[in-house]
Design brief:
Length: 182
C-alpha cells in the first residue's frame, strides 16, 4: 500500500468549520480504538491532490504535533452542489490491523485497445478486499491492451496477490471488450 504524508494541525474550538473552509482548509476528525477523537484540519489543496492521486482507500500518514500517525480515510463528505471536499474522517491504523476496503481498479492499456477499434465497457470500478493494513494496495492494475472483442475480465482473472483476500465472487465481471457496434 502506498503511504503518503499529509500535514495536519489541531483545530481550535473557537474556529468554526465554515471559517476554516474560507481560509483554504478542510476540517477533519482523527480517531482510533484507544484514543479520544481529535478535531484537526489540513490544507484543501494538499488533501484534494492526494485524494486525486491515491484515492480515498490509500494508507496515509498524518503529521500531527510532531508525530506521524498511520491512517485511512474512513469517510469523505462533499458539498452536493460544488462536489468539493468539506470534511474528512481519518481512522488510526495500527500496522497489525486486519481491515476490509474497496480498492479501486486502475485500467491500463486503454490507448492500445482503442487504437484497434475496441471499446472497453467497465462493469466495476473497485474490488472489495480484506487483509492486513500494510498488504492492501492503493489500487489494482488491470491491463486491457491485449484484449480481443468479446473478451471479458473477471475478478478471478486479476493479479491481486496472496497477501489479501478478495471478498467479491471470482466470476464477477469487471470489464468487457466490445468491437462490433452494429
Amino acid at each position: 500500500m502506498i503511504v503518503r504524508k499529509l500535514n495536519v494541525f489541531t483545530r481550535q474550538d473557537d474556529v468554526t468549520a465554515k471559517q476554516l473552509r474560507k481560509q483554504g482548509y478542510v476540517p477533519a476528525i482523527y480517531y482510533g480504538e484507544k484514543q479520544q477523537p481529535r478535531k484537526i484540519a489540513a490544507a484543501k489543496k494538499e488533501i484534494n491532490a492526494m485524494i486525486a492521486r491515491l484515492g480515498s482507500n490509500a494508507l496515509y500518514e498524518i503529521a500531527l504535533e510532531n508525530e506521524l500517525k498511520r491512517v485511512i480515510i474512513k469517510e469523505v463528505q462533499k458539498d452536493p452542489v460544488t462536489n468539493e471536499v468539506i470534511h474528512i474522517d481519518f481512522q488510526d491504523m495500527p500496522e497489525n490491523k486486519w481491515i476490509s476496503l474497496r480498492v479501486p481498479l486502475k485500467y491500463e492499456g486503454m490507448d492500445v485497445l482503442e487504437s484497434r477499434g475496441i471499446v472497453l465497457q467497465r462493469q466495476a470500478e473497485a474490488v472489495n478486499v480484506e487483509g492486513h493494513v500494510n498488504s492492501i494496495p492503493s489500487y489494482i492494475c488491470v491491463y486491457v491492451g491485449n484484449m480481443k472483442g468479446g473478451q471479458k475480465i473477471q475478478i478471478g482473472d486479476l493479479n491481486i496477490g496472496s497477501e489479501i483476500r478478495v471478498l467479491d465472487p471470482p466470476d464477477k465481471i469487471v470489464a468487457v471488450a466490445i468491437s462490433d457496434f452494429k
